Amino acid sequence: MLQVTLNSHTPVSDCDPYTDEALTSPWDIYTELRALGSAVWLTRYQMFALTRYDSVERALKNATTFSSASGVMMNDDMNRVLRGNTLCSDDPDHQRLRRIVAKPLSSNALKALSDEITQKAEQLVKELVARKRFCAVADLAVSLPVDIVATAVGLPTEGRERMLVWGDHLFNCFGPLNDRSRNGFPVLEEMMDYATTQAVRGKLKPGSWAEAIIDATDRGDIDRAVCPAMMIDYMGPSLDTTISAIGSGVWLFATHQEQWQKVRESPSFVPAAVNEILRMEAPIQGFSRLVTRDYQMEEVTLPAGSRAIAFYGAANRDERKFPGPDRFDVTRNSVDNLAFGSGPHACVGYHLAKLEMAAIFTALAARVRRFQIEEQVRNVHNVLRGFRTLIVSVE
Predict the structure, then answer these.
(1) In the structure, what pLDDT confidence band is assigned to residue 44 with cuts at 50, 70 and 90?
(2) Closest by CA position to 140, among listed 357, 333, 304
(3) Which of 180, 270, 317, 366 is a good FRET partner for 156, with 20 to 30 A between their CA atoms?
(4) Among residues 41, 79, 4, which one has the least CA distance to residue 289?
C-alpha cells in the first residue's frame, strides 16, 4: 500500500466501521466521523472516510480526481478482479461501457416493463396478505426483482438460482480484507466461472440484456476479455440493492406506523416514501475511490494516491443537509439522497429499483392496515444494509 503523508489539519480516527456492531448500527460512528471533519483518516484501514453529504457528493461528481479505474472496493484483490468493467472504469471507457449496460435500464426503456411489474407486484402482495404472515425478505422483497431481472437479463436457467448468493458474497468482497470478504472470494470464483462459461452466445435468451453485451463484443465496442466482468454488472447489483431496500422499507413502516398511515391515506406519497426509505437505509453503505491528485476538501488535503471511502449511508444522515436526519418522514421527499450514488457513476439500475419498490408499496398500501414485526435478523455485511430475515404479520 502506498505510504501517505497527512497534513497537520487532517482529522484521524481509530474507529472501525466494519465490526459486527458497527455494521448493525453504524449511526454513532457516522456521527462521530462527521463531527471530526470533511475527510477523516481511518488508521485501521489507511483510507479516508468521507461521511458528510457535501464531501461524498463532491467526490462522486469529480470522477477525474476521485477515480474508479483502479477499482471502487476497499481491498486490492477485489479491485483487480473487476477492473475494467462499468463500475471500475473512468471516461471515456466508462461512458462507452455504461451506454451498453444502461440502455435497457433507462426510464424510457422500462416503460415496457411498467405494467408487468405493477401486475406482478399486485398479485404477489395479494397472495402474501392472504397468508397474514410472511417474510418481508424471502417472500416479498426477493420475488419481484428475481422474477423481473432474471428473465430480462436472460441467463441460462441452470445456475440462475445462485444469483442471490453470488450477489451477497460479491458485495461482501467489496469491503476491506476481513473474514466476510475472504469467505466471499470462493463464491465469487464460482460467479466468474458462470459468467465466463454460461453467459455466452447460444446459452443466453435471445434479445436479452446479457446478449446485448455479447453483441457489443462482436461489434468491437468492448474488449472480449472484459465481457465476463460486465456480465456481473447484471448478475449481482441488479438484485441485492432492491431486495435490501424493500425489506428495509417494510421494517421502517412497521416501526413508524404513523408514516404508513400517511401512505395508506394518500398513495401519492409512495414516490416520496421510496426516496425516504433509500435515504434512511441506503442499501449500499459505501464504495471507495482512488485520489489521483492532491485535493483540498475544506481544511483537509487528500494526497494523490490515497483512497477515500464515500459512505453513502452517513451522507444521507448528515444534519447539515437533512434536518432531523434520523427522523423517518415520508413527506420529506428526499429526492437528492445519495443511496444510489451521484455523478457519472450513479447506479444504472436505480430507475428499475424505484419502479419495483413503488409497485410493491402501492400494492401493500391498498391491502395492509399495519405491519407487526415477529422476528428480525439483520444481514451483517461489509457493504449491503438490510435484513436476512424479517417475519411480519399484517392486518
Answers:
(1) very high
(2) 357
(3) 180
(4) 79
Answer whether 382's CB lies under 8 Å from 288's CB.
no
Report the alpha-carbon distance of residue 349 to residue 220 in Å, rounded. Answer: 24
Relative to beta strand 47-50, strand 307-311 is: parallel
Per-residue confidence (pLDDT) for residue 35, from 0 to 100: 98
Residues 6+ positions from 189 with CB-CB distance below 8 Å: none
Residue 16 contacts residue 22 (beta carbons within 8 Å): yes
CA gap 124, 140 in Å, rounded: 7
Query: In the block, which residue shows the cell 484501514?
Result: 45
Q: What is the pLDDT of residues 247-285, one digit of tens each?
A: 999 999 999 999 999 999 999 999 999 999 999 999 999
The answer to whether residues 361 and 372 touch, using CB atoms and an 8 Å cutoff, is: no
* Strands laid side by side in the 286-291 sheet: 12-13, 40-42, 47-50, 307-311, 286-291, 66-67
Question: By percentage, how much of the chain surpasses pLDDT 70?
Answer: 99
CB atoms under 10 Å from CB of 327, counted, come to 12
Whole-angstrom distance, CA of residue 351 vs CA of residue 355: 6
Whether 72 and 285 have beta carbons less than 8 Å apart is answered as no
The answer to whether 198 touches 159, Cβ cutoff 8 Å, is yes
pLDDT at 237: 66
* Residue 167 scores a pLDDT above 70: yes
DSSP 293-342: S-EEETTEEE-TT-EEEEEHHHHTT-TTTSSSTTS--TTS--TT--TT--
Q: Is residue 309 pLDDT above 80, yes or no?
A: yes
The CA-atom distances, in angstroms, between 44 and each of 18, 40, 173, 256, 285 are: 10, 12, 18, 36, 18
